[in-house]
Every structure is written in structure tokens, then in C-alpha cells.
Amino acid sequence: MRRAQPCAVFQTPHAMKRYQALADTMAAEIRAGRLPVGTRLPSVRHLTTQYGVGQSTVFRAYYLLEEWGLIRARERSGYYVAPGAMLATLATLATQTPAAAPAPLADPAPIDVSSLVFSVLDAVKRPDVAPLGSAFPSPKLFPLQRLAKSLAHATRMLDPWSTVVDMPPGNEALRRQIALRYIGMGIAQPAEELIVTNGAMEALTLSLMAVTKPGDVVAIESPCFYAALQAVEHLGLRAIEIPVDPRDGLDLDVLAEALDKHPVRACWFMTNFQNPTGATLSIEKKRALVALLAKHEVPLIEDDVYGELHFAQDRPPPAKAFDTKGLVMHCASLSKTLAPGYRLGWVAAGRFADDVRRLKLMTTISTSIPIQAGIADFLQHGGFDKHLRKLRGALLTQRDAMEAAIARWLPEDVSFVRPDGGYFLWLKLAGHIDAMQLHREALGHGINVTPGPIFSARHAYGNYVRVNFGHPWSGQIEDAVRVLGELVRGRG
Ligand SMILES: Cc1ncc(COP(=O)(O)O)c(C=O)c1O
């Protein structure tokens, strides 16, 4: 096994911490192929002497390289260049040149975003890190004890035959409860067209599989929920990005042009509290969207996981409410509203219900039967609406607290559009700020923010970050925003 020679150049550019400079220097060596996969990196003691830095500087540099996926630790043996290092370089490449937002209508292109996304998401798992980059609200906001009671009760009462009976489309009592919620939105949703899935993610992916084949063109948003990009990448599809304005949402003119010019087989859009911008389409735009797609006979995969988290009086309807042709596949879940970790989602799949049901059987067979029964029990007896009212109230308070902290600590040129629901702020920073670098630097201070480039097939939005306000206000969060402000100012 080759042993690495210490890298020759180690400069500390202005405003860059020494461990970051060291990590950058070594990352450049790995990227350039001068440290091939499997190479053992110099010992901590060696680097300490070589560069005249403290041990903690070297350790932090190695942790950073690990975070970027470039190196791996082996117990009692040291650090080695990781097998996926060349893939992981994508993540760091994106740190170097913040790209501009994409042109209004570019040609469809394959997607390659996964390694960048994984390197960012790995950091979310660290419990010591301030959760501004989390995709979830705080678990403290969910009635986990009451849910556990429903689960215990339903499991005790479970009919042994439910193992077969509750196979896709899923537990009937649960689907009836879900269908009732559609009635609350003014949608007569037949329970037969509802397929229970493992979270919304499976609902969305199965829907996409049902209406496309590899090489097809699909329209997605820009910026876009990163898992949609990954699903498109995984299924070998080509994506055409339709811009989303944080205030007005999806650009329907660009979509109309795309539908005219390209053989778009499906659209995957969020109509309420879009992730990451927070934008909600007006009722007129939802109607127009459904009509436009109906004209072209193009299915809409509608991701509505945040629709229930509205701050105004009424829930904004989904585009599904205006669908008369069965073309809208409305996907949602309880992951953000009631039961994170239970992985309970569904799709109201319209005319594609049978295809999705079969795909569900072929891929994961069934969603956990006891979980389906437990959630059905909770929806019937657990006070879901009361819980939702409390949750929305908490999120609204936290949004206001986050806004106030941002006004206190971040520079005045940081801007965002206030969302009316969900729990994300999409912050636009000054043009010269590199969000990937800020993300890495913030992690070094125990703070996680989600950098803009992971929301784009082309790693655009280089000066944006998404900030989560789904956690009750605390000293830790206030401090995190303060330090974030210092880091942003430090780059001024
Ligand atoms: C926009 C969006 N869609 C779908 C999902 C996935 O939802 P679930 O956890 O129910 O699979 C998420 C989760 O982060 C999301 O943010």
C-alpha cells in the first residue's frame, strides 16, 4: 500500500481557519490523483511536526476530509484515501465556483447530484450539531406517547390475516381515514385509488416509475428537493428544470415552452410550501397548471408533504383538487406532521393507481402492517387535528423567532421571502458568498445549514442556504444564528 508524502504547500489564506486550509490542500492532492485510493495518509504526529500546527488542527482537517467522503479512518491503523474519493470530489468541486441560477429553459440533461447530497446529509446525523440543516421538525413537537398507545392497541387487536389483507393498496381502515382528509380538502377521493407507501418518498418514486422509462424527459423544479434529483438520476431520466420564484412559485410560461419543445413524460412539482423556497402556488396557478398538463396529457406527480403545515386559517388545496382526468398523482405522508420515522405515506394515484399498486408489490411488497394499523387507530381516535393546530402554532412562533434572530445577526443584504407554512427559510446571501464553503465552515463550529447547490442539478444557487426553523427556540439555536452571522460577515 502506498504511503502519502506530505503535501508540499500549506498556506492559510486570509479568513480561512488553519484546519480548513490543511484539509483543502490535502483534498487538492487527492482530487489531482496524486494520492490514489487506498493511500495511507501521514500520521497526525507527522503532520503536526511537518506543519507546526497543533494535533487538534490535524484532527479537524481529517474530520473534514472524512465528511467530504475523501478519506476513511481504519481502527488502530490511521487514515486512508477512500474508495469513493473521486465521486466525492463533486462535492468539493461545487465549493469552488458558486454557479448562477440556471437559464430559464435549458435542454434536458442527465443528473449527477448524489455524491454532493450524501456528503451534506451525513452531517445532519450528528446530534451535537445545531439542526438548522435538518429536514425535519423537532421530535418534541410530535405526540409520540399517544402514537405509541395507538400502535400498542392496534397491534394487540391485529387480525393475523391482515398480513395478507393489508397488502397493497394497504390497510382499508387507514385508507378510509386518509380519504376522509381529502373530503376535508373538497376532494372526493376514492379509497381504492390510494396506495399506502413507505413515506412520501416511495410514493413519489413509484409514481415516477409508473409513468416513465429510462431516458425519458421529466420536468422538475429549480431549486428542487434534492431527493427528487436523486430519484431522477437513479431512474436514468433526463431532467428539464423549471424555475421556481420564492414568491410566486413555478414559472408556468417556461413550463408551457418546455412542454411545446420537449417530449416531457411527467412533471414532479410541489404546489404548497415548496422545499426549499417555501413558495405556494395560488389557486389560479394551480388550476392553470392542471389545465396545461391536461392539454398535453402529461401526468403531474404532486409532492404535498408540507400542505398541512399552513399558518393561515385554511389548508391550501393541492393541484389534485382541480384534476378531472386522473392525471395528478398526489403524494403525501405523516413524516413531517405526525409520525417521523414511522415511514407512513401514500399516493392518490388517479388513473395510475393500478400501476403504482403493482410496482409497490414488486419493490417493497408492503408497508409495515402493524404501523398501518397503529396509524389508522391514531387517525380515528388520537386527535390528529388538535395536534396539527398545536404544531402549526409552534412552527409559526419559531418562524418569527428565526426571522428576528436573522435580523439581529445576519448582514442586511441577506434576504428571503417569508413562508406561510412549512419550516424552512431560503436565504439569499450576497453574491460573493460560497454556500458550500460556508456550510463546511459552519460545521466546524457545530452548526449545520443546507447549502443551495444540493437543490440543483447543476449545483446552482451557490449563494443560497436553507435554514430549518422546526425546532423550539433555544440558546443553542440563537447562538448558531449568531455564529452564522459572524461567518457570513467574515467573508465580506
Ligand atoms: C419535499 C419533500 N418531499 C418528500 C419528502 C420525503 O418524505 P417522507 O419522509 O415521508 O418520505 C421530504 C422529506 O424531507 C421532502 O422534504
TrEMBL record:
GO terms for molecular function: DNA binding; DNA-binding transcription factor activity; pyridoxal phosphate binding; transaminase activity. The keyword Cell division does not apply. In the C-terminal section; belongs to the class-I pyridoxal-phosphate-dependent aminotransferase family. InterPro entries: Aminotransferase_I/II_large, HTH_trans_reg/aminotransferase, PyrdxlP-dep_Trfase, PyrdxlP-dep_Trfase_major, PyrdxlP-dep_Trfase_small, Tscrpt_reg_HTH_GntR, WH-like_DNA-bd_sf, WH_DNA-bd_sf. It holds the Pfam family Aminotran_1_2. Keywords: Aminotransferase, DNA-binding, Pyridoxal phosphate, Transcription, Transcription regulation, Transferase. It comes from the Bacteria. This is Transcriptional regulator GntR family with aminotransferase domain. The keyword NAD does not apply. It comes from Caballeronia insecticola. Residues 16-84 form the HTH gntR-type domain.
